[in-house]
Amino acid sequence: MDRMNWIQLAYLVAALGFAFSLKWMSQASTARRGVLAGEIGFGIAIVATLFWPDIDGEGYLLIAVALLIGSAIGVPLGLLVPMTAMPQRIALSHAFGGLAAGLIGVAHFYLERSHYSKFDLLVIGIEITLGMLVFTGSLMAAGKLQEWLPQRPIVYPGQNAVNFAVLGAALALVIYTMADPDVNWTIPVVVGLGLAFGIFLIIPIGGADMPTVIALLNSYAGLSAAALGFVLDSKLLIVAGALDGASGLILSIIMCRAMNRSFTNVLFGAFGATDATAGGDGAEQGTYRTAMVDEAADLMKIAGSVVIVPGYGMAVAQAQHKVRELADALEKQGVDVKFAIHPVAGRMPGHMNVLLAEANVPYDQLLDMDEINSDFAQTDVVLVLGANDVVNPAARHDTSSPIYGMPILNVDQAQTIFVVKRSMRAGFAGIENELFFNEKTSMVFGDAKSVVTELTNEVAGQRDAISL
Amino acid sequence: MSSTDIIITNLFIFSLAAFVGFEVIRRIPKLLHTPLMALTNALSAIALVISIVILGQGHSTYAQVLGFIAVVASSINVVGGFIITDRMLKMFKPRERKPVATEDGAA
Predict the structure, then answer these.
(1) Distance (Å, rounded) from C-alpha A249 to C-alpha A246?
(2) Of the candidates A328, A460, A440, A334, which has an alpha carbon nearest to the alpha carbon of residue A384?
(3) What is the pairing mode between strands A305-310 and A289-290?
(4) Which of A120, A244, A389, A398 is catalytic?
């Protein structure tokens, strides 16, 4: 066997490591083993690559320097980023991934195009476009999540026409390159069009759609790696890219379903554009009642079961640790406490689970929408913390509502509902929430963190008084 | 093998890997979706191996420049992605079924 065969065998082992890595991710108890399998696979792939023919001394030096710089940035980025900023962090690394894949496509094209087939030329063109659009698209998403860019969807007439024109121009240049591979100017223009398309793609997308967008960019990043694998005849890239592409695709489908968005809308990046106008001036505003913190605490304390519904408002107030303390205090009173997690709570798939895990809430206390929705009718008290659209009953029956059809948590079926909110202002999607005007609902106004702290003191304090 | 054979072989591999990916990832609970994204993010940086080859072989200055940027960018993803996935997973703990009252029962 020659050296390349050994390298390919090592790549096979690496690919198996990746497959096991994902398999072990399917349970919280084995997930860390999954990370280890991925790391070992990756380590094997890198070491094997260092034996590639034609790498000289200067090459090894440059590789070492580049790996060191990358690690010097990657380690702090991995260790220091707070969990609330995880969506931006993931989006940023999609950007790095897209940039790397795109640039390698360009480099390989100019080095090897004389050996390319027509198919290779087509695929490398698509690969470069994908990599570049993932780069700028992910930077835009990260900017929106970090609130450096406006979160509202920005729409203008003829938006889709412009987008298709940019994409069409890129494709036309790729086809032109297929006809004449020796032409030098087309690929840099394709790079530019890909970069522009990434920006145009994310501009019309609002902040509420970010979970879907991030998952979709994840998928595109995987597809660009797989495309590179086709051109380079690298089975390892094809396998890893296919796994990543499948993962992103599944997650974006799940996010779409959770928001009742059509998947074709997402594929064409036209989602988020429809919502901005609807809602707002809800005519049947009605009256609402308010409750003081001690009233809420008294009721929760004597309840048999309490369900807490956390939303992004809780995360923004950094209240997740206080929420855990409240849950503990209630459990000491013999109250059964559960957390209800809507799939799109937070800013990326599963984000709320991570935030609550950070506050040491046991994961078996966190229940998905599907698991908990039938329990609300038997629940005594629900505490809604900074969640809004995901508990709005209008989604079930108001056909004029922009969130009509979106699956929601059936909070309104509980006996008593407390909603912690700063004011009566409408939430993220700008829609009036009829839950707030339900006769079983009381509004507790205030910052999520201070309200929860007071609730905890009331619940815990009262217990001491009784035991004395 | 002719180039058509190679394309067909690779299409086989892509389709089967995508199928395995769908079947495995479909079973991952929503609880773990954020760690999953961080992990696949690290795995998708596999373009690192090609970046290393292009940088190491140094066929031209501009290929070296592009390769260098690509190695830096992908290694940020690999290193950061694995660290952050593990950091998140460390936080996921099952409920400890300890007797609740004993902790400050003496008060």
Answers:
(1) 5
(2) A440
(3) unpaired
(4) A389
Splitting chain A (468 residues) into consecutive groups of 10 residues, what average pLDDT does each group show?
Answer: 92 96 94 97 97 93 97 95 92 95 96 93 96 96 90 81 93 96 95 96 82 90 95 95 94 87 64 43 67 91 94 84 93 93 87 92 92 94 89 88 87 94 70 86 90 92 53
Contact flag B43-A60 (C-beta cutoff 8 Å):
no
Chain A residues within an 8 Å CB radius of B60:
110-111
Please report the sign of the dihedral spanned by the C-alpha atoms of residue A345, residue B41, residue A20, residue A123.
positive
> CA A186, CA A198: separation in Å to the nearest integer?
18
Minimum distance, in Å, between the CA of residue B94 and any CA atom of chain A = 5
Q: Which of B50, B60, B69, B87 is the mutation pick for testing A, counting most A CBs within 10 A?
A: B50
By Cβ distance, the residue of A104, A215, A243 closest to B51 is: A104
Q: Is there a catalytic annotation at residue A368? A: no
Cβ contact A225–B56 (<8 Å): no
**Integer Cα distance of A178 and A171 in angstroms:** 11
The DSSP annotation for B4-42 comes to HHHHHHHHHHHHHHHHHHHHHHHTS-GGGHHHHHHHHHH
Nearest to A411 by CA among A327, A465, A341, A349: A341
Distance CA B45, CA A58 (A): 24
Q: For B96, which DSSP code?
A: P
**Tokens describing residue A426:** 């409408």
Cβ partners under 8 Å of residue B54, min gap 6: A104, A107, A108, A111, B63, B64, B66, B67, B70
- Count other C-beta atoms under 10 Å from residue A377's C-beta: 11
Contact map slice: B 29-58 vs A, CB within 8 A: 29-58
d(CA A455, CA A93): 39
- Mind telling me how many Å the CA of A22 is from chain B's nearest CA? 7
Phi-psi region of A137 (alpha: psi -120 to 50; beta: other; left: phi over 0): alpha
Where do we find the tokens 């790996």? A67
